[in-house]
Structure formats: structure tokens, C-alpha cells
């Protein structure tokens, strides 16, 4: 369970988040809002990439600031641009990166890599240079790099923004099949239409917190 | 690209320790400069060619490694022919060809991760001096990874500036490239942190 207790974030003169107080316990949570509304700041608090100016965040009772290493082990983060997330030049090497940081045995690393590549139909690309993958394959590799770590929560920050329709659909199916709790920031309203809960951000505040049908409809009115 | 050279296989060279191959490369690179006779160096070059065949690579792969060097080798040969004689020219180009071919063969048969793991092991004795082998290895892998990414960014910027009629302006190319690279560096640092690397 994720808990935000009166969390505010201040960037110099600008207040990015203001007094956020809520509990997230659903399996699929969508986050929408205009650019600069505080969505990305909100999710970056979940694994300590951002620290709160006041208040605190708890992930299964762990504080991402004090227990950063433990929290990052349980909260996987997929960024908008997979090119910035893939750090090794070859597919299997990139997948092994996080696992080596966890100091897992070599056999276990290989088992997890083979399993995840098979899951996303990327087995033929195991020794492939990562920069030669298509946009969709890169995003699936980025998701795979997070999933091999076996996190409990997965945060996706605009995962379909840079993709064409076919690859967007592939990523949507991949997300739908995940067992973990998923928190998705997106401008792609169809992507979150089937979620359990949607939060709408405006000027650093949550202005709508509802089921997707209601939240999306109100958001469309707001943006009209 | 450097990152894309490794080819899967199960030959003796594929199975050999990355560290041993790097040491052999250093030994060959030094050795051919100690040999003063072109026929002996040619024999070394023939041995490297035999190693390509043993490792399962055909003539096309072999020539692809040396083709980009062709004009450089031709110039070296011509200069030696002018300053000395044809034997000296042959000695210089067979030396360079042997080193380049062997270095390429090592890259073709060794995964980047294995090479970096060897490098990490070799650097471990430097830990007391404050050197962090894991960080050095990550830095090298990221250089290999981001060469093609930055080349793509540069190509996008060049196209955008060309569309605006600024294709002759170096500033219009360099400034956005630096800004985008710095922004990318921030994002990559976040991604590395998010993936549990401290």
C-alpha cells in the first residue's frame, strides 16, 4: 500500500505539489493532467527520485528517502523515453544490469533474462545491439529491465507517448498482463480507461479522484 | 558501430576468457612491432586469418574489418615505398593489418559484458586507491551504448536545422546537441538510480 501524508514539493518559487494526502491500494491507478501539473513529480516521489519538501511518502511502510535502496527494489520505474533507460549496448547485458546490482547468482540472472525475453517475444534479440531495436521493442526492453527485478509496484511515466499505434497496443497489452500494482502517468486516455482509479492533477493538486469513466469525462471538460 | 560487432558462436575463441583474449591482443600488438621482417609478420597475419576461419567467420566478415582501412594502408605503403623500399611498405601494412584484424576478431568473439567483467577484475587491486571498478565499467558501457543514441540526436538536429535553412550554422547544430545531451544525461542518471545502482 502506498501512502502520501500531506506531501508538498517546492521548486524555488514554484510549488510543484501541494498538500497531497491519499492512500493508493488499487491494482491499476492512472494519473492525468496538463503539462507541468505535478504528475511526474508525484510519481518520482514513489522511489525517492524526488524528495518531499514537507510531509512524507510510505511504500509498504518504507520511506523512499530513508530506505531508498529497499524501496527502489520494490518500485520499478519505466521512463517515457526508453533510450534514456537502456544503459547497456546489448539487450541481455542491459537486462542483467539491475540484477547484478542486486548481486544475484549468475544462473538466476540468466533464468530471469530468458524468461522475460520469451514473455515479450524478444528471445531472438538477446544478443542484439539495443540501439537497433524498434521503438516498441525498446519500450518493451525498458519494461523488461524493470520486471526482471520482480518489483511489487511499477510506475510508468508516459510509456506510449513516443510509440506508433501498433507498438502502443503492444505496450498496452504488456501492461494489462502485469500482476503487479501499476501506476501510469499518461496523456493517452484510452490506456487508462480500464484502470481501477484515476487521479487528475492541476497546479500541483489532485482535483479529481474517481473511477476512469467519471475522471476522464470531467478531465475532458476541464481541458475544453 | 562498436556495440554491434559481437557475433554469437561457440568456437574456441568464443569460449576463451575475455581477459586472455585482451592479453593476446596486447601481446600481438607489441610483438609485431618487435619483428623486423615482413615474411614473419605476414605469417602472423595468415595465422589471424586462420583464426577467423576457426571462429566460423567467412571472407566477407574478414574483408569488412579491413576495408575501411584500405586507403590508409595504401598511403602508408606508398610513403614507405617513396622513403625506403617495397619491403618496408609491406612490413608496415602487414603489421597494421594483423593488429586491426586481431582486435576485430576479439570484438567479434567477445561480449561487451565479458570484456567489461575482465576489466573490472583487472581494476580490483586499484580499489584501495579509490578506484571503483563497477563505476568505471558502467561508464565504458554507457559510452558504447550512447554513441549511436547521440549520433541519432545529432542527425535529427541536423535535419531540423536544414529544414530551417540553417545547415551551414555550426552553432545551430552544437547548442541544441549539447542541451539535449545534458538533459539526456539527467534522465539517464535517474534511470540508473531507479534501477538500484548506487
TrEMBL record, chain A:
Domain of life according to the entry: Bacteria
- GO cellular component: a single term: ATP-binding cassette (ABC) transporter complex
The family database entries (Pfam families) matched by this protein are listed as:
ABC_tran
Chain ranges of the ABC transporter domain:
2-224
List the Gene Ontology MF annotations in alphabetical order.
ATP binding; ATP hydrolysis activity; ATPase-coupled transmembrane transporter activity
Keyword entries, A-Z: ATP-binding, Nucleotide-binding, Transport
Q: Which Gene3D superfamilies match?
A: P-loop containing nucleotide triphosphate hydrolases
SMART domains documented for this protein: AAA
Q: Does the keyword ATP-binding apply?
A: yes
Family per UniProt?
Belongs to the ABC transporter superfamily.
Q: Which PANTHER family match?
A: ENERGY-COUPLING FACTOR TRANSPORTER ATP-BINDING PROTEIN ECFA1, HEAVY METAL TRANSPORTER
Would you tell me the protein name for this molecule? Cobalt ABC transporter ATP-binding protein
What is the protein's species of origin? Thalassospira profundimaris
Taxonomy of the source species:
Bacteria, Pseudomonadati, Pseudomonadota, Alphaproteobacteria, Rhodospirillales
UniProtKB/TrEMBL annotation, chain B:
Q: Where are the transmembrane segments?
A: 22-52, 64-83, 89-108
The subcellular location is: Membrane
Please verify whether the record's keywords include Transport.
no
GO cellular component term, pick one: plasma membrane
Q: Which UniProt keywords apply?
A: Membrane, Transmembrane, Transmembrane helix
Q: How does it sit in the membrane?
A: Multi-pass membrane protein
Could you tell me which InterPro entries the record lists for this protein? ABC/ECF_trnsptr_transmembrane
Q: Which Pfam families match?
A: CbiQ
- Source superkingdom: Bacteria
Q: Can you tell me which family this protein belongs to? A: Belongs to the CbiQ family.
Name listed for the protein in its UniProt record: Cobalt ABC transporter permease
Name the source organism. Thalassospira profundimaris
Amino acid at each position: 500500500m502506498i501512502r502520501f501524508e500531506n506531501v508538498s514539493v517546492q521548486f524555488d518559487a514554484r510549488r510543484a505539489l501541494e498538500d497531497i494526502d491519499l492512500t493508493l491500494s488499487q491494482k491499476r491507478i492512472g494519473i492525468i493532467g496538463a503539462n507541468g501539473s505535478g504528475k511526474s513529480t508525484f510519481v518520482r516521489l514513489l522511489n525517492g527520485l524526488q524528495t518531499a519538501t514537507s510531509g512524507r511518502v510510505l511504500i509498504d511502510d518504507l520511506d523512499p528517502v530513508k530506505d531508498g535502496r529497499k524501496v527502489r527494489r520494490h518500485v520499478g520505474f519505466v521512463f517515457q523515453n526508453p533510450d534514456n533507460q537502456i544503459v547497456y549496448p546489448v539487450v541481455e547485458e542491459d537486462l542483467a544490469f539491475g540484477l547484478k546490482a542486486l548481486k544475484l547468482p549468475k544462473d538466476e540472472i540468466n533464468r530471469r533474462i530468458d524468461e522475460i525475453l520469451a514473455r515479450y517475444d524478444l528471445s531472438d534479440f538477446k544478443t542484439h545491439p539495443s540501439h537497433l531495436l524498434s521503438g516498441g521493442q525498446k519500450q518493451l526492453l525498458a519494461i523488461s529491465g524493470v520486471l526482471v527485478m520482480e518489483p511489487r509496484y511499477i510506475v510508468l511515466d508516459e510509456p506510449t507517448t513516443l510509440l506508433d499505434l501498433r507498438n502502443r497496443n503492444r505496450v498496452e497489452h504488456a501492461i494489462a498482463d502485469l500482476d503487479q500494482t501499476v501506476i501510469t502517468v499518461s496523456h493517452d486516455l484510452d490506456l487508462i480507461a480500464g484502470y481501477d482509479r484515476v487521479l487528475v492533477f492541476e497546479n500541483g493538486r489532485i482535483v479529481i479522484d474517481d473511477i476512469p469513466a467519471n475522471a476522464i469525462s470531467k478531465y475532458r471538460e476541464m481541458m475544453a | 558501430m562498436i556495440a554491434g560487432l559481437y557475433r554469437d558462436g561457440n568456437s574456441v575463441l568464443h569460449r576463451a576468457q575475455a581477459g586472455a583474449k585482451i592479453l593476446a591482443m596486447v601481446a600481438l600488438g607489441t610483438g609485431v612491432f618487435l619483428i623486423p621482417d615482413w615474411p614473419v609478420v605476414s605469417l602472423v597475419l595468415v595465422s589471424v586469418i586462420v583464426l577467423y576461419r576457426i571462429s566460423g567467420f567467412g571472407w566477407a566478415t574478414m574483408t569488412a574489418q579491413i576495408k575501411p582501412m584500405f586507403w590508409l594502408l595504401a598511403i602508408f605503403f606508398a610513403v614507405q615505398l617513396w622513403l625506403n623500399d617495397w619491403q618496408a611498405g609491406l612490413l608496415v601494412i602487414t603489421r597494421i593489418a594483423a593488429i586491426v584484424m586481431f582486435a576485430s576478431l576479439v570484438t567479434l568473439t567477445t561480449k561487451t559484458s565479458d570484456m567489461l567483467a575482465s576489466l573490472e577484475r583487472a581494476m580490483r587491486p586499484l580499489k584501495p586507491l579509490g578506484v571503483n571498478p563497477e563505476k568505471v565499467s558502467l561508464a565504458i558501457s554507457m559510452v558504447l551504448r550512447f554513441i549511436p543514441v547521440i549520433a541519432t540526436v545529432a542527425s535529427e538536429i541536423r535535419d531540423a536545422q536544414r529544414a530551417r535553412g540553417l545547415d551551414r550554422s555550426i552553432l545551430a547544430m552544437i547548442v541544441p546537441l549539447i542541451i539535449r545531451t545534458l538533459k539526456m544525461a539527467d534522465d539517464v542518471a535517474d534511470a540508473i538510480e531507479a534501477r538500484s545502482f548506487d
